[in-house]
């Protein structure tokens, strides 16, 4: 807020003025969002336009359409923290983990690529270390997408957890000159420094969907209904359960069943099909369910924050059960997965942002690497750092393998690979999927 002429404080901090007169209008916290204040005598007017007010739900909002089923009421109970478990209990779970992961390939293929669309930005000396790290990741993501044949015209790219929309931005630059390219940027939060405005004059269509992935029914998005084009699901550092929600959003047919269950429109006498005699002529068969389904051409999602996964939404529950594991083991593995990135660094409270950081720099800061359980630093008798890292990686591997199994069951050839080096990001695994060849 700007300080008015003759005032010492802006409106937001007017209450801090000790010299304020008694008749000065008081500012109070907004009842919809106490993070900001409003003049008391203008509260009623403010509530009508406050950005935190409840807004009408968009047509593609279907509550919990991508949420998993609550199979067991006990799973909804608060999880027991690792620090509440004894060393012996953790030892039992680690033994189960190693047994379950025994037959899995513990080392992913490394495929660190680049793309010409980012060469100029990568060579720009004005980009600092943090910007360079993100550019390197985006370049490799585009390179891997191109290697899979996902970059092309006549398709719609759906970026989940879009944030500022930088990944879609670079995909659009890579596809300059391509016809009929659309972008849907899914983000539940209001984001600053968006790059969408840079594409207002381009031939590509950019549209933001302000909705939680949990409630997004893609088959009801007007753009996709109109264009009927293949969809490519993309994401960079899609945290925990958001990855599972995105996979359900793309591939789970329950959302399409919601559309199919809608009552048919009542035929009116003015309809062309209704003849002058009042007898309905035979109508062509309506569009089949298969024709209504989204055609998902591929998926490319950089994974992170497995400790934020949720058994209810997890797509690999069937895989876990096939190994004799359930929600209790999943809850422990989910928490221990943070050891892969937190076991060798200081706790998040000791981490510092770059000097002079602004809003954009804070977003570029690798906050994903700082999250997680810092148990390793405050309990005695725990495994050594190397052992904790190994356990954390096995937890991530097992959770990701459940996602691979889910994609395979849906008819996709899915892979996990390292798309960047640990020095660029500790969360360096990319999940890709394309339709399996017959």
Low-confidence stretches: 259-290, 344-367, 374-379
Question: Nearest-angstrom radius of gyration?
Answer: 25 Å
What is the count of distinct domains?
Answer: 2
Mean pLDDT: 81
User: Counting H and I runs of at least 4 residues, what is the number of helices?
Assistant: 15
Number-wise, the strands total: 10
Output the CATH class name of the largest domain: Alpha Beta
Shape call: globular
Oligomer: single chain
Strand order of the largest sheet: 3-9-10-8-7-4-5-6
What share of residues is helical? 25-40%
What can be said about the biggest beta sheet?
8 strands, mixed
Distance between the termini: 60 Å
CATH fold node name of the largest domain: Rossmann fold
Portion in strands? 5-15%
- Based on secondary structure, the structural category is alpha/beta
| Element order: H for helix, E for strand | EEHHEHHEHEEHEHHHEHHHHHHEE
């Amino acid at each position: 807020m700007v300080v008015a002429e003759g005032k010492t404080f802006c409106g937001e901090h007017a209450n801090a003025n000790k010299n304020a007169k008694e008749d000065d209008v008081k500012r109070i916290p907004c009842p919809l969002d106490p993070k900001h204040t409003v003049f008391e005598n203008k509260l009623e007017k403010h509530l009508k336009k406050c950005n935190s007010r409840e807004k009408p739900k968009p047509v593609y909002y279907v509550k919990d359409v991508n949420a998993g089923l609550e199979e067991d009421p006990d799973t909804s109970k608060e999880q027991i923290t690792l620090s509440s478990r004894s060393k012996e209990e953790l030892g039992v779970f680690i033994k189960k983990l190693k047994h379950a992961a025994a037959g899995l390939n513990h080392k992913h293929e490394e495929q660190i690529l680049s793309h010409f669309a980012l060469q100029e930005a990568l060579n720009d000396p004005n980009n600092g270390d943090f910007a360079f790290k993100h550019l390197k990741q985006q370049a490799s993501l585009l390179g891997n997408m191109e290697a899979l044949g996902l970059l092309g015209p006549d398709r719609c790219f759906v970026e989940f957890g879009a944030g500022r929309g930088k990944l879609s931005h670079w995909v659009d630059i890579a596809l300059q000159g391509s016809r009929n390219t659309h972008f849907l940027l899914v983000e539940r939060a209001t984001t600053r420094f968006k790059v969408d405005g840079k594409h207002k004059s381009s031939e590509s269509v950019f549209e933001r969907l302000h909705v939680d992935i949990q409630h997004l029914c893609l088959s009801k998005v007007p753009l996709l209904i109109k264009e009927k084009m293949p969809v490519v699901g993309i994401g960079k550092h899609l945290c925990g359960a958001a990855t599972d929600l995105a996979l359900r959003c793309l591939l789970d047919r329950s959302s399409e069943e919601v559309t199919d269950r809608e009552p048919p429109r009542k035929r009116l006498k003015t309809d062309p099909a209704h003849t002058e005699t009042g007898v309905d002529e035979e109508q062509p068969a309506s569009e089949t369910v298969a024709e209504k389904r989204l055609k998902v051409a591929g998926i490319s999602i950089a994974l992170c924050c497995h400790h934020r996964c949720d058994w209810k939404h997890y797509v690999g529950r069937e895989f876990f059960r096939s190994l004799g594991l359930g929600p209790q083991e999943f809850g422990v593995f989910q928490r221990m997965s943070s050891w892969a990135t937190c076991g060798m660094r200081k706790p998040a409270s000791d981490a510092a942002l770059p000097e002079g950081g602004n809003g954009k720099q804070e977003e570029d800061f690798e906050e994903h690497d700082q999250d997680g359980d810092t148990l390793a630093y405050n309990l005695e008798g725990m495994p050594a750092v190397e052992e904790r890292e190994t356990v954390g990686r096995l937890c991530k591997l097992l959770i990701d393998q459940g996602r691979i199994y889910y994609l395979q069951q849906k008819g996709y050839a899915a892979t996990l690979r390292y798309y960047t080096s640990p020095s660029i990001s500790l969360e360096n695994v990319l999940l890709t999927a394309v339709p399996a060849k017959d």
